[in-house]
Amino acid sequence: MTINKKVGLCIPTYNAGKLFKEVLDSIRKQSLSLHRKLAIDSSSTDGTAEHSLQHNFELVTISTVEFNHGATRNLAMTILDDCDYIIFMTQDVILHNESSLHNLISPFGQNQDILCVYGRQIPHQNANPLARHHRAFNYGGEDQVKQKEKIKDFGYKITFCSNAFAAYAAKPFLEMGGFSNNIIFGEDSEAGARIIVGGKAIYYASSAVARHSHNYSFVDEFKRYFDIGVMNATNSWILEAFNTPNKEGLRFARSEINYLIKKGYVFWLPISLLNLAAKYIGYKLGTFHKQLPHALVRGFTLSKSYWDKPEMRKT
After folding, report:
1. Which of 20, 53, 74, 129 is least enclosed by beta carbons within 10 angstroms?
2. Residues 6+ apart with CB under 8 A from 251
3. CA 259, CA 6: separation in Å to the nearest integer?
4. Is 315 part of a structural domain of the chain?
């Protein structure tokens, strides 16, 4: 399929490290011709910005405090205002083959209701068993179209998509409001929820493949899920529309334990249980963040810049 639309790509960056060169090389090798490439860099000090320029990216520099998962991506869409579709990647995503971006954009031509397409993520080669299960659980081998009439089938997970590797139909998505300008985490899921409620669709493209995974510690998981809890608490309409994520969380826990046993990773079971507990406790504390002292909240979060804004500070 030939794509005759203008496609832009944006990567928010901050001290991306050695892996970034491989990320940029994977973009350079794509069969899809990109109209524009943009890096929004949060004042890196390790040469990340310079690497972007060397690969013909436009560069916008912001302070670390200015970064916000939603507002920064809205800024990108404003800058790339002549693009029909805008791809978002993170600085640690390596495109798996030369067709990854082409296959990510292709579904837009199937249905004008599709506002977001997200691709399949497979683990990095150094991924531990927990990271491998996480990718297998969330990214299957079959395409999916998620829309309002399928809420009962998907439940809370119907909102799921990942801006680590996703594309948006720029104009109609912005007409729906774009991303939330002040969100701690999960700007993709919040936007996905509004897409579904608005009667439009999210498409999962299993043939658009990228390598992306993290070997999270239990502390990392606690902080990530604390931020997810904050996001859901501050956007309670999502839970009202799609129910709580409790059922999906239990399904994930059972799947992970079965995966470890089936694959012979029984020594990972204690680590799995610790991580699952950290997720649950972190999430619950996040939902009650307003009752916690600011210093404690700042210690629990991965997104310190979110809490450092004057309006978020409290005693």
Report:
1. 53
2. none
3. 42
4. no
**Partner residues linked to 283 by β-bridges:** none
Please tell me the distance from the alpha carbon of residue 292 to that of residue 288, in angstroms, as a whole number: 7
4-26: per-residue pLDDT in tens?
A: 899 999 999 999 999 999 999 99
**Residue 1: C-alpha distances to residues 157, 159, 187 (Å):** 30, 28, 30
Classify 81 as helix, strand or coil.
coil
Give per-residue pLDDT as tens, 189-225. 999 999 999 999 999 999 999 999 999 999 999 999 9
CA-CA distance, 273 to 256, in Å (whole number)?
Answer: 10
pTM value > 0.90: yes
Measured distance CA(252)–CA(238) in Å, rounded: 20
Domain assignment of residue 258, yes or no:
yes
> Is residue 282 domain-resident?
yes
Q: Which tokens sit at 228?
A: 């997810």
C-alpha span between 256 and 263 (Å, rounded): 11
Q: How far is CA 292 from the centre of its chain?
A: 27
> Does the residue 1 lie in any domain?
no
> Which H helix or E strand runs over 20?
helix 19-28
Q: Which two tokens stand for residue 189?
A: 């899921």
- How many other C-beta atoms lie within 10 A of the C-beta of residue 141? 8
Q: How far apart are CA 155 and CA 177, in angstroms?
A: 23
Which helix (H) or strand (E) segment is 284 a member of? helix 269-287
